[in-house]
Amino acid sequence: MYQLLTSQMKYFKTILCIAAVITFLESKGQMIDTDSIYKTRDLGFSQAILSDGIIYTSGIVGWDRTYQLTGNGSFEEQAKQCFTNLELLLASANSSMQKVIHLRLYITEMSEMNKSVIANLLKIHFPNSYKPATTLLCVKALARENLKIEVESISSINKQ
């Protein structure tokens, strides 16, 4: 009986995955590509995708528009730049920080100081009672050397 249920569950999961892929391919999403932050197209990915009124950002790091890392290795300066870049990217996509549904933050060092910096930035960028769901993960390394933080978000767009 267990094997039958397991086999049926695998079949059901496969059907769900296929349906999700078909739905995505039908919606195709709109690539968001702004000059407000560093370009990612040459790196092989989009800054964000808008699909069905939801904006999915790629990982945003502490680079300025010229791919220079801000803050001379400072976690706090990189984190500030990440949040600034996120704000600029969302604004270019007809959204804002107040429309963020979920944040995922990747950091390379889980120290009390770094957690305090993040908590402070969250208070600054989400000053009202609304706070997005947030996940903080510590990772061994990020995509490029010297990056200390990367932020992803899921947001809705502003209604016209």
Please explain how this structure is put together.
The protein has one domain: 60s Ribosomal Protein L30, Chain: A (2-Layer Sandwich), CATH 3.30.1330. The chain is of the alpha+beta class and 160 residues long. Helix 2 runs parallel beside helix 3. The longest helix is centred in the first third of the chain and has 26 residues. The relative contact order is 0.18. A 6-stranded mixed sheet has the order 1-2-3-6-4-5, covered by helices on one side. The radius of gyration is 18 Å and the shape is globular.
CATH class: Alpha Beta
Query: What's the end-to-end separation, in Å?
Result: 53 Å
What is the CATH homology-level superfamily?
RutC-like
| Helix/strand/pairing category | alpha+beta
User: Which term fits the overall shape?
Assistant: globular
C-alpha Rg, in Å?
18 Å
- Spatially, the strands of the biggest sheet line up as 1-2-3-6-4-5
What is the CATH-assigned architecture? 2-Layer Sandwich
The low-pLDDT segments are: none
Most strands sheet: 6 strands, mixed
Mean pLDDT: 87
Order of helices and strands: HEEEHEHEE
Q: Return the domain count.
A: 1
Measured by DSSP, the beta-strand proportion falls in 15-25%
Keywords:
60s Ribosomal Protein L30, Chain: A, 160 residues, 21% strand, 6 strands, 3 helices, alpha+beta
Walk me through the topology.
Elements: H1 2-27, E1 30-32, E2 48-51, E3 54-57, H2 75-92, E4 100-107, H3 112-125, E5 133-138, E6 149-156
Parallel strand pairs: 4-5
Antiparallel strand pairs: 1-2, 2-3, 3-6, 4-6
